[in-house]
Amino acid sequence: MRRSSAPRILVIEDHDSVVPFIIKALRNVGYVVVAAPSRMAGLARWRRSSARFDVVVLDWGDGRPSAQAVVESIRSDNPDVAVIAIPGGLAPQEVDVLRQAGVVNVVCPKPFGQRELQTAVASALVLRNVAV
């Protein structure tokens, strides 16, 4: 199967009400979007994907496995993948810690609009040197 030239985005988000919005916002600008309803499902999608993802958009809330464990697992396979955290309730200093520690590349706090999400993904793709 031939890989599409459009950037591939893996969205790992467990809030059913948010997923259609994210998918639509990203597909509207030409990205190939695959969504997973949980962190475990996201890891499974990551591992079995025949085409690598350029960016992972990850809900950064409570749950198991932890979001940081998901990032570590994904990066053990591909250390160059860009990760966007979409937290719902982190304090600004916690967001800075994530970014400064290199755990995530971009943070797009909820609630966000289409433009904010699209900008976050475009920024992550620039970090990965992927043509947008």
Summarize the structure.
This protein is of the alpha/beta class and 132 residues long.
Task: Summarize the structure in words.
It contains 5 helices and 5 strands, in the order βαβαβαβαβα. With 132 residues, the protein is an alpha/beta fold. The chain has a single domain, classed as Response regulator (Rossmann fold). Strands 2-1-3-4-5 form a 5-stranded parallel β-sheet, with helices on both faces. α4 (92-100) links the parallel β4 and β5 (106-107). The radius of gyration is 13 Å and the shape is globular.
Biggest beta sheet attributes:
5 strands, parallel
Task: Indicate the overall shape.
Answer: globular
Q: Tally the helices: what do you get?
A: 5
- Strand-residue proportion: 15-25%
| Domains (count) | 1
Record the strand order, biggest sheet.
2-1-3-4-5
CATH topology: Rossmann fold
Helix and strand content put the structural class at alpha/beta
CATH superfamily membership: Response regulator
CATH-defined architecture: 3-Layer(aba) Sandwich
CATH class: Alpha Beta
**Cα Rg:** 13 Å
What is the tally of beta strands?
5
Oligomer: single chain
Reading the helices and strands in chain order gives EHEHEHEHEH
The portion of residues assigned to helices is: 40-55%
Topology:
Blueprint: E1 8-12, H1 19-27, E2 32-36, H2 39-48, E3 55-59, H3 67-77, E4 82-86, H4 92-100, E5 106-107, H5 114-127
Parallel strand pairs: 1-2, 1-3, 3-4, 4-5
Helix pairs in contact: 1-5, 2-3
Descriptive key words:
single chain, 132 residues, alpha/beta, Rossmann fold, five-stranded parallel beta sheet, 40% helix, globular
